[in-house]
Specification:
Blueprint: E1 9-13, H1 17-28, E2 32-36, E3 67-70, H2 92-101, E4 106-109, H3 114-122, E5 127-129, H4 134-155, E6 164-168, H5 172-183, E7 187-191, H6 195-203, E8 207-209, H7 214-217, E9 223-226, H8 235-238, E10 246-249, H9 259-264, E11 268-271, H10 275-279, H11 281-296
Parallel strand pairs: 1-2, 1-3, 3-4, 4-5, 6-7, 6-9, 7-8, 9-10, 10-11
Helix pairs in contact: 1-11, 4-5, 4-11
């Protein structure tokens, strides 16, 4: 498939397996695209063991490019660009040095640290953080919800069918998750702060509670899904939870659970981050591609 507009030169650097699939997506669409330090196999095999992967191309020097697409997040150690390919790590300093010599028309990534924002401002490089894109967040809610259910089933000896399930938060992910649990014939209760969210959940046939009612009801749930990036399940609230219950936390770091206390109480917990890229990399890559192509048409 060829592009229907003037295609810039694109370089995808680092990231996880979805970024390699993003590279292949752009190749198939007829873009002029290069890959650096890409992870060319899925992050884990069936048994969850790390899989060795070679880089797509060796790095002696980074060639100029109109558009740079980095991993999400941009960095994890504040030194290197994030890449699941440990054979080909690139320092932020080296990356900035090369871009300063040939400033691109667009820098695309996610969770940019202040160093990237300041560098982009200094060299007048348009910088787009995909994690701030509402359209991507909405579409990613689907694989995130499916992944949360997958991890819950993996962690429990019980089925979701007719189980009491609690969804904390009714935002983008909470809404999709609650609907999918209901479709599996789980008995779903939604806990949210806003009255309009509680009303919307009730309109979809779910039970609802507010946070003031949480302590008195926590012990009745076999599955608890947290989507709120705040310490909702603290030491006190965890003491009310059934020891056979499973807590799946999909909120961004540091999550909404006191994991240390949960472990001491013998409660099974999973903090599941980056679900789309791990469990549905093809879908995640397609979601990114759609938004990035929209950005490319603007340059």
């Amino acid at each position: 498939m060829s592009t229907d507009f003037s295609s810039p030169n694109i370089t995808i650097i680092g990231g996880d397996y979805r970024h390699y699939l993003l590279y292949k997506n752009f190749v198939n669409r007829g873009f002029s695209v290069s890959g650096v330090s890409l992870q060319t196999t899925s992050h884990t095999d069936y048994h969850g063991e790390s899989v060795h992967a070679e880089s797509l191309c060796a790095v002696n020097t980074l060639l100029p490019s109109d558009v740079w697409i980095t991993g999400i997040p941009f960095t994890k150690d504040q030194v290197h660009l994030y890449s699941e390919n440990s054979n080909c790590l690139i320092t932020m300093e080296y990356f900035f040095h090369n871009l300063s010599k040939h400033p691109p028309k667009l820098l695309i990534g996610g969770c940019f640290p202040k160093e990237v924002v300041e560098f982009s401002r200094e060299y007048q490089i348009p910088c787009h953080d995909l994690l701030k894109c509402n359209a991507i967040a909405i579409e990613n809610a689907i694989p995130t919800a499916e992944g949360a259910i997958y991890y819950a089933m993996e962690a429990s000896q019980c089925v979701l069918h007719k189980s009491q399930c609690l969804v904390l938060g009714y935002g983008k992910c909470g809404k999709v998750l609650a609907e999918k649990l209901k479709a599996l014939d789980a008995k779903v209760t939604v806990c949210a702060r806003r009255e309009e969210d509680l009303s919307a959940a009730e309109a979809c046939g779910m039970e609802t509670i507010n946070y003031d009612e949480l302590n008195a009801t926590l012990g009745s749930f076999m599955f608890i899904f947290n989507t709120v990036p705040a310490r909702i399940l603290d030491k006190k609230r965890l003491s009310y939870i059934d020891k056979d219950a499973v807590i799946i936390d999909i909120a961004s770091m540091p999550g909404g659970v006191d994991f240390e206390t949960a472990e001491s109480l013998g409660i099974t917990t999973r903090h599941c981050l980056g679900i789309p890229g791990k469990l549905a990399p093809k879908t995640a890559a397609d979601i990114l591609a759609k938004q990035i192509i929209t950005l490319l048409k603007s340059i």
